[in-house]
Design goal:
Chain lengths: 311, 304
Amino acid sequence: MLFRIIIKKLAILLISLFFVVSLTFFLFKLVPGDPFAQEQAVPEEILHSMHHHYGLDRPWYVQYALYLKGIITWDLGPSFKYEGRTVNAIIKEGASISLVLGAEALLIALIAGIFLGTLSAVKRGSFIDRLCMIGAVVGISVPNFILATFLQYIFSMKWGLFPVARWGSFAQSVLPAVALAMLPTAFIARLLRASMVEVLLQDYIVTAKVKGLSFMRIWACHVFKNSILTVMTYLAPLCSSILTGSFVVERIFGIPGLGSWFVTSILNRDYTVIMGLTLFYSGILMASVFLVDVLYTILDPRIKLSKVAYA
Amino acid sequence: MPEKDPLFLPYQIKEKEIHYDASLYLSYWRSGWKKLRANRLAMAALFCLIGLMLMAIVGPMLTPYTYYDTHLQLKNMKPCKMFWLGSDELGRDLFTRMWWGARISLSVGMVAAVLDIIVGVLYGAISGFIGGRVDELLMRFADILHSLPYLLLVILLMVILGPGIFTMIVCITITGWINMARLIRGQILQLKTTDFALAIKALGASRWRILLKHLIPNTLGSIVTMLTLTIPTAIFAEAFLSFLGLGVQAPIASLGTMAHDGLSALRYYPWRLFFPAGCICITMLCFNILGDALRDALDPRIHL
C-alpha cells in the first residue's frame, strides 16, 4: 500500500514538473518582442547572428526538444544579459547563500512556532493564549517585505544593533532570517494550537495524567507526536512562503542569493535565468511536498491516500 | 377496584412543556451573525474595514490635490498642515496618493478574490457533484496546479503579460482558485449523500437544480469565510508584485508601489514608507481577524 502511494505521488510529481517545464517554455515563446531588442535599433545582421548563437532561429519543436534535453542533463543554458555566465553557475552561486538563509528561517520558525503553539494550547483560554493568537494573526497579516524594512530601520538604522545589509557574517543573517520566519512561525503556532487542543482533550492524555506522568513526559510522548502531524502537512507550503519571501527580503538586505537574482532577472527580462530559476524553485518545492507526503504516510498509518493534503 | 398504576395514567400535557424558545432555533445566518456580534475583536475589525473603504472612496476628495499633481518646490515634506501625510520625491501629496492606492489595492484584492471564488466554487462543485472519473481527472489537474508555487507562477505570468491592474487580477485568479475548489468539492461530496439531497432528488428536481439551488447554497458559510480570507491573500499578492516592480505603473499608485518607493527613501523620510505600509498591514489584519471570526461563527460543526 505504502509503495503504491509513493509511486502515485511520484507520478504526480513528475507530471507536475513536466507541466512546469512546458509552461515556462511556451509562455516565454509567447512573449512579444525580441529578447535582444534594445532602445536603439539593433542591426539586422547582429540580431540574426545572436539568434543563431542562442539557437533561436530553429523551429520551436527543436528548441523545445533541446530545452527538455538540457533540463534532463541539468544544463539550463546561458544568461541572455550577462555574457559568459550560465544559469547553472548563477544557481550554484546563489543557492549556497539562499539555502543557509532559508534553513535558518525555517529553524527559527519551527522552534518559535512550536513553543508558542504549545504555550497557548496548554494555557488555553488564558491571557497568554489570547496574546499569542492575536500575535499570530498579526504575524500572518504583516507582509514580509514590510516587516523586513521595519526590522532594518529599527534594529540597524536607529539602534545599530545589526549590520544594515550584505551577507557574510552570522549577525548579517539574523534580521533577514527573522523577517522570513515571521509568517511560518505564526502559521505553525496557530496550526499546532488547534491540533494540540484537540489532542489534549483525548482520553489517553487523562490516562497518562492519572498514571502520574510528568508534564514534560506527557507532552513529549503523547501530545507532541500526535499534534505535530497537522503541522507537517503544511511544511511544504511554508517552505514555499519562505522561498518566495526571500525574493524581497534578500533584495531589501542586499543579499546576493537566488531571490535577488530572480528579481534582477525579472527587471532585466533575462528570460533564460527566469526560466531556470523558476524550474529550480518548482523542483525544490515539489520535491519537498513529495517528501513530506511520504513521511506523513509513514508516520501516520491511519491516513488514507485521499486524506493526505497534497499541499 | 385496584388502584391505578401511575405508570399507565394518560399523559397530561402541561402548558409549560411545549414552550417554544425561539432564541434556540435561530436560522443559520442569524445565529452566525449573533456569534459574530459577540466577538468584539471581529466587530472592531469590521468597523475598521468599513472605515478604510469609506476613506478609500472619499479620502482623495478631502484634499485639494490629485494623486498626480507634482509640487517640485515641496519635495519630501514632513507631515504638516499642507500635506497631511507629507509629500514624496516629486512633491505629490501622500494623503491623496495613499487613499488612491488603497482604492486600487482594495479593488484588485476584492475583484481577484471574488473571481477566485466564482471559478473555485464552480470547479469544485462540478467535480464533487459529478464524481467518478471526471472528479478524479479534475482533481488531479488541480493537484498539479496546486503543486506549482503560487507567487512564482503569478510572477511568471506578470513578466509575460506585462504590468497593469487587469493582468494582475487575471494572474492572481488563474492561480488562486484551487484552494476554494478543493474545499467546496469536499463539502459537496458530503452533502451529496445527505438525506435532504435524496429527498430533493425524489421530488424530481433536475441535477442542475439540485446543485445550484440546494447544494451550493449549503456551502455558502464556507464560501463567505473563504472570501474574507482570500481577499488579504490577494491584497498581499498585489503589494508583493508592486514591490517587485511588476505592479501598476506610475503615476497611478497602489499601496505596494508606494511602499516600494518609500523604501528607497527610508533613511531620511521614513514616513513615506510607514503610512502606506501601515495601511496594508491594517487592511490585511482586519480581513484576517474577520475571516477567523466568520469561520468560528459559521462553521456548521459548531452550529447547533
